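Researcher: Structure for this, please.
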Amino acid sequence: MASPKVAALTRQDIIKAARNFTWSRQMPKWTVIVEGREIPARPLVLEAAGVAPNDRTNSHQAIAILKDRGFDTRYEGKSV
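Model: Predicted structure, token format:
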């Protein structure tokens, strides 16, 4: 189960976090498209919620939240 802060995220919270999000590592398998940018799904959700990187929310939960908020999610670059 996603942590309460993660579950409470709104679409606007995610968009706001995405605008300032930077990622310098290899892109993970699960990503999301926000305002035309492909961003790692779980790290973005965790940053938007303001929780630690070791939060119990997993990638599948992050993807479910992003899909529920109307975002285009991808697995290894392919839309799902």
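Researcher: Any notable elements?
Model: Residues 5 and 49 are 6 Å apart (CA to CA). Strands lie at 30-34, 37-40, 72-75, 78-79.
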